[in-house]
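#structure-requests
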Amino acid sequence: MSPTVFREKGYRFFFFSREESRMHVHVVSGDGEAKFWLEPEIQLATTYRYNRQQLKEIESLIEEHYHELISAWQHYFGG
């Protein structure tokens, strides 16, 4: 199961169930995919096929929705 937290500008932001415990979010669109750490700070973990401009846009969306992502993580995974 991979619950979607939100969708914006063609990107889907979601979690994978039963993955590592460090807070992070996965992002996917028709152009590629990426994984960003949410703690201790927002940081790119991995990417596939996104260019720098797309990664900046994604990071900006993560910043805008940071509290929503943290809350959704805590609700979904507990803690």
